[in-house]
Every structure is written in structure tokens, then in C-alpha cells.
Design a protein that fits this description.
Structural class: mainly beta
Number of strands: 8
Largest sheet: 6 strands, antiparallel, barrel
Strand content: over 45%
CATH architecture: Beta Barrel
Distance between the termini: 21 Å
CATH topology: Thrombin, subunit H
Order of helices and strands: EEEEEEEHEH
Helix content: 10-25%
Shape: globular
Radius of gyration: 16 Å
CATH class: Mainly Beta
Number of helices: 2
Length: 127
């Protein structure tokens, strides 16, 4: 979920909300659950940091995540487009502990599209 940070300015306190990472839960058709953190989001899809696991390109998951500072939960089908493993682990002869997975929405529902666009506008990110 988003992170709250306190900062003091004179006698008043401000709470700054960082929009990322956002908790993401993925559900396979076989009911297997996976979890990750959304590092960036747009109307096409998202980049997720995940524990190192096998993701098949083209595989479709049901994805669930809550828009920060709201109670609105996005539930959409997501397709695996690309995976990236950190190269430094392989150079050291180690297995990576995490990876980045690019997922695209298969068909973003209109109300979810509008909610994501509003969120991106609020945080100053271009869609």
C-alpha cells in the first residue's frame, strides 16, 4: 500500500503520501495466488516488483489492487508482457531474489480507466 511520511513545518505537521509501491495480488485460473508491489501504473498496464518466480509470457492473471488514499479496488485481467531479472545476481553466480514483471490490462473497464486516470492526475503522472 502507499506509505505515509510525516514532515514538520514550523508548528504544523504534514503527512505526505507516496503513491508507490501499491500492493498487488494476482490470481491464476488455478486459484494460485501471487503477490507483488506495483512500481508504476498507467492506463495500459503496470510494472510490478515480485519475488523471483516463473511467469510465462502471455499468461493471464486476475489482478486486485487498491488505489492509494481511497477504498476503491481495481479488479482486472492482466497479461504478462515481459519479465526482467536483476543482472548483478547472475554475474555473482547467485539466484535473484526479486524480478520486475510488466503486465498489461487485457480490457480495462471504463469505470476503472476513469479511476486510474483520476489517480494519475492527482499524483502528477501523465497517462
Amino acid at each position: 500500500m502507499s506509505t505515509a511520511k510525516k514532515s514538520s513545518e514550523s508548528s504544523s505537521e504534514k503527512i505526505m503520501i507516496t503513491p508507490y509501491p501499491i500492493d498487488l495480488e494476482l490470481l491464476r485460473p488455478s486459484a494460485e495466488k501471487r503477490k507483488g508491489k506495483i512500481k508504476t501504473l498507467n492506463v495500459v498496464g503496470l510494472l510490478m516488483e515480485s519475488p523471483y518466480e516463473f511467469y510465462k509470457l502471455g499468461e493471464v492473471f486476475e489482478g486486485f489492487f487498491q488505489i492509494p488514499t481511497t477504498s476503491y479496488v481495481i479488479k482486472e485481467k492482466l497479461r504478462v508482457i515481459k519479465t526482467q531479472q536483476p543482472v548483478e545476481h547472475f554475474r555473482k553466480g547467485e539466484m535473484p531474489t526479486h524480478m520486475i514483471v510488466e503486465l498489461h490490462f487485457t480490457s480495462l473497464q471504463d469505470h476503472n480507466l476513469k479511476t486510474i486516470q483520476e489517480f494519475l492526475s492527482k499524483i502528477g503522472q501523465k497517462t
